[in-house]
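FYI - complex with adenosine-5'-triphosphate, inputs then prediction.
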Amino acid sequence: MRGGDIELAGLVKSYDGLTMAVDGVNLRVPDGAYCCFLGPSGCGKTTVLRMIAGHEEPTEGEILIGGRNVVGLTPADRRTAMMFQSYALFPHLTVRDNIAFALRVRGLGKTERLAAADAMIEKVQLGELRHRLPAELSGGQQQRVALARAAITEPRVLLLDEPLSALDEQLRIQMRQELRRMQQELGITFIHVTHTQMEAIALADLVVVMEKGKIHQAGPAREVYARPRDRYVAEFLGGQNVLRGEVTRVSGGVAVVDLPDHSSIVASLDGQRSIRRGEMVDLAVRRDDIRLLRPDGAVSEAGGNILRGWVEAVEYQGAFVKVMVKTPLPDEFIAYVAEREFYRDPLEVRAPVLATWSAEDSRLLA
Ligand SMILES: Nc1ncnc2c1ncn2[C@@H]1O[C@H](COP(=O)(O)OP(=O)(O)OP(=O)(O)O)[C@@H](O)[C@H]1O
């Protein structure tokens, strides 16, 4: 039994009794999940991580690992391990000795330590590098050593604080795959803190989006990206346009929303049951669900929602083209048009356009 499931219940951390670094966090992380805490600097994600690790005590609330409250226990008794941003490898010890060191702290004999280190070295594919010093390794290899050193104590939960931030862009993407592979191989719960949206989305089974000490949304990557709960999550994850307007009608699972430019948009309620006429609401539509038409073309082609504007800027992105559309609305409006489709009849800057999408592609936000 691994027992690496985590439950955070009413978790609060205040350093000075006034500001809440963590402000009432409730969350369940299943055993063996890859969970990413995502949010801007200062949102409290590292503090949550440090409290799970046992490097910081909560002001209030419980942390259950494997069903047992671990508040007050040492990291070793919690069976958690932490991998730091800087890797914190001993410069004078070889790869093998760095990895074996964690077991010396736990009082294991030398033969046992080295045998365990060798097994772990194979697991993380560091075979040929076992006798090298950290300075003789690449950033990615150093990270693998740091991971092996954290994993050798057989923790139930491995905590990673911005593990990829020291690497360059290309290596970061490569190491992302490797972290995922290792997590699956070790079969333990990973809690990974990051402020990079794409990193969280690419890696996690469970993405937890935080702001100012609170969780806005926790769910599978695709749910958080494609069905953000509120404006904050939609804007932080990106890929969505968020518009604000007044509800003029609610019926049959949809709401009609009047925007400040007097256009009417139909959006699915998407479970927002309590919406009433007259209420101000946010609605989201994915940038890649927008079709851009020339106004002189067949307006009948425009199924459902229409917003009028003109092309403010065009940015080539490779697989798609990012078109910034200026509308009379205060919110920015962007369409991602598939590359081939865009170049069939390229829109030039200042061209008037109709941005259209179907009712079911826009959703009310909380
Ligand atoms: N030891 C401390 N003493 C006082 N305040 C602290 C301490 N550690 C963190 N804080 C404050 O708590 C809040 C949350 O910090 P935390 O490090 O958890 O955020 P974060 O989201 O991880 O940010 P970053 O990505 O910059 O590390 C911040 O306002 C921070 O200034």
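The domain at 239-364 is CATH 2.40.50.100 (OB fold (Dihydrolipoamide Acetyltransferase, E2P)). The longest strand covers residues 240-251.
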